[in-house]
Amino acid sequence: MFLSPRRELRGWGEALRIEVPAPWAEHLGVVSEALVAIESTSEVGPAPGSGPIAFAALPFDRGAAATFIVPQLVRASTSDGEHWTTELVTPHTADARSVLREHHPGGALAGQNEPERDPEEVHVRSVVPPHEWCELVAAATRRISAGELQKVVLARELVVTADAPFDPHVIAHRLAATHPHAFRFDVDGFVGASPELLVSRFGDVVRAHPMAGTTPRSGDPDVDNRMAAELLHSAKNRDEHSITIDMVLDTLLGFTSFVDAAPDPAVVAAGTVQHLATMVEGRLSDPPASVLDLVAALHPTPAVGGFPRQPALDLIAELEPSGRGRYGGPVGWVDSAGNGAWAVGLRAASIEGVEARLFAGVGVVADSDPFSELAETQAKFASTLGVITRL
User: Fold this and answer.
1) Which residue of 77, 230, 259, 345 shows the fewest CB atoms closer than 10 Å?
2) Using an 8 Å Cβ cutoff, are 194 and 179 in contact?
3) pLDDT digits (tens, 9 = 90+) for 162-199
């Protein structure tokens, strides 16, 4: 599933699994070819998200392989009141229909039914102990001060182990309920509620909503407003934000006849934190590029990787040798016409059996304080960790 404020898509069953060879960023054409090859008819015309669609949660590493899933049944709705169902006829279509009728008679969110019981015991482990992670941040600041790069995004990983298997669909439902304005997703065991739109493409309209620069939320409106004002006037955070906006604009210029950004960032609340965010919108040149072309060009932005891109990615590989999996990678959907919406895979967890892996990242610049960055990761972990552990 992929739910956004404007459009919601929920899928059942698996009609086709498309394996994209490494590096995925250079082979996304196989997905478009596979979708176009599926014969379909539509009663809603060429509405974005109608006909065959594929969901994916792509690895952060552009050099890795990736998997796209084409559901057998998709129920879609828009904020304008449109609704439709897409059905791909395969030998297993009847099974998907049966599951939909039995568990989701009203087309409800996959995983809406609560499990028989939540895990009673959970253990949370930091893969890199906090004091060692702070040393990595300090090492990164020294490399930045030496002129090797301007910014790098470093991530922390938590592993949550339970005494009973986690249900990813239930976790996704709980995240969706508590983050109704986020981009909520449940794709092949990767679940989350991201505040950040990497890119969307509907017809010839392209949008992005980059976020960079963060401060906590306290729950007290007066305190939160004060911290939001401080964030807006923070030179460090404004500089970090500008790096990301400039990169997004420069990248989209190659695909558009017109593109522009809001003159000033706004503060967007996202669970336990708030971010600087700027809306970017443009018109794609004719013929419009597929959303997958835009995803490949934009990922990773400086908000999740750093700047310049390659030195930042090299430093991430050095300081995070175990990798990030799908954290920070693009997650979303694409249809056979090249429309789609893709979020950045943040505030998310990879669920497999009794284990959940969570990541939280921070933008490190020359004057970053390791302990402040550690506190920021804790704030970012809070909402997802709370849903998983029910603490």
Assistant:
1) 230
2) no
3) 999 999 999 999 999 989 999 999 999 999 999 999 99
The SS3 call for residue 254 is coil
Task: Give 132: exposed, middle or buried? Use CB within 10 Å, 0-12, 13-18, 19+.
Answer: exposed
Tokens at 22, concatenated: 């490494």
* 247: CATH: 3.60.120.10
Q: Which residues of 332-358 are buried (b: 16+ CB within 10 A; e: fewer)?
A: bbbbbbbbbbbbbbbbbbbbeeeebbb
Q: Give the burial class of 41: count Cβ atoms within 10 A of its Cβ; 0-12 exposed, 13-18 middle, 19 or more buried.
A: exposed
What single letter denotes the amino acid at residue 88? L
Q: Is residue 19 part of a domain?
A: no
Overall pTM > 0.90: yes
Structural domains counted in the chain: 1
Residue numbers annotated as active site:
151, 196
How is residue 312 written in tokens?
């930042």
Q: Domain range spanning residue 178?
A: 121-389
